[in-house]
Amino acid sequence: MGVGASPALPVTGRSKFLLDMRLRFKLSITISVLALASLSASSAEVAVLRNGFSIRLLRHESREAVTRLYFADSSSNYVEVPTDQIVCFEAEEPPLALALKPTLPTTLEEVVSTASSSNHIDPDLIMTLIGAESGFNANAVSPKGARGLMQLMPQTALRLGVDDPLDPVANVQGGTRYLRELLDRYHNDLTKALAAYNAGPKRVEQYRGVPPYAETQTYIAKVIGDFNRKKHARVSVHHDFSNKPEAIRNSKSEAPSAAPQPSSELMPGTFR
């Protein structure tokens, strides 16, 4: 046998070898096509906000003073952000195959997710509250002095250990922790917790419920309405996905996860 020569394969062995090579080649082509299809199907865009954060979304729709950011195919799953708070929209880059090292939260969803996990509050509720409080403007300051994404009053921020209420990460963590305190105080009654967040616990105690302030009542109706709309949209998307044939469901890289549902006490009805 010469140097570098390969041993001769029997006829049956050579046929099996060639068959294996063809199968591997076809398999590699199939995997490549599926990978490209998956990448195309999951492509989205990123809204870059003036507060330094970005929000991943499926699509957006401009409506004069506000822009709707859609997170799913459902037309009811969106948040409204003041258009002047959006710097630009960028195409989302596909994630790298290997992560070099853990990084700090870089998007508002990641900040909210962290606060949600540590305080056991639905992330959709936190995101809805941010929209109602500041319109996603991390530098917002109210005439009464409330600051940041979740509009913390200076004394409340100080008690919660938030040194800089205009720091988005610290503000969201502090505001979520404060909301958790209020929910515990009012036995998971979201209406009273939101009333206290807006008007202060003293007013809720004084009136034994929602204070008769138009601003507070409008605020509660908006937050609860937007939050319930988000939850219903998620349930609708999950239901539509579950009704698809099994072959189609299995072709998805990941089924939409059902967000933790609040208790009945967190889904109040109308109020007076």
Task: Record keyword descriptors for this entry.
9 helices, three-stranded antiparallel beta sheet, 272 residues, mainly alpha
Instruction: Give, in order, the helices and strands.
Output: HEEEEEEHHHHHHHH
User: Looking across the biggest beta sheet, what order are the strands in?
Assistant: 2-1-6
Shape: globular
Determine the number of helices (DSSP H or I, runs of at least 4 residues).
9
Contiguous uncertain segments of 5+ residues: 1-11, 27-43, 97-102, 247-272
Radius of gyration: 26 Å
Query: Into which percent range does the helicity of residues fall?
Result: 40-55%
Q: Outline the biggest β-sheet.
A: 3 strands, antiparallel
**Mean of residue pLDDT values:** 76
Secondary-structure-derived class: mainly alpha
Strand element count: 6
Span of the ends, CA to CA = 96 Å
Give the strand content: 5-15%
In short, what is this structure?
The protein has helices at residues 11-41, 108-119, 123-134, 154-159, 168-185, 190-199, 201-207, 214-242, 246-251, and strands spanning 45-49, 54-57, 59-63, 66-70, 78-82, 86-91.
Question: Helix and strand layout, with pairings?
Answer:
Elements: H1 11-41, E1 45-49, E2 54-57, E3 59-63, E4 66-70, E5 78-82, E6 86-91, H2 108-119, H3 123-134, H4 154-159, H5 168-185, H6 190-199, H7 201-207, H8 214-242, H9 246-251
Antiparallel strand pairs: 1-2, 1-6, 3-4, 4-5
Helix pairs in contact: 2-5, 3-8, 5-6, 6-7, 6-8
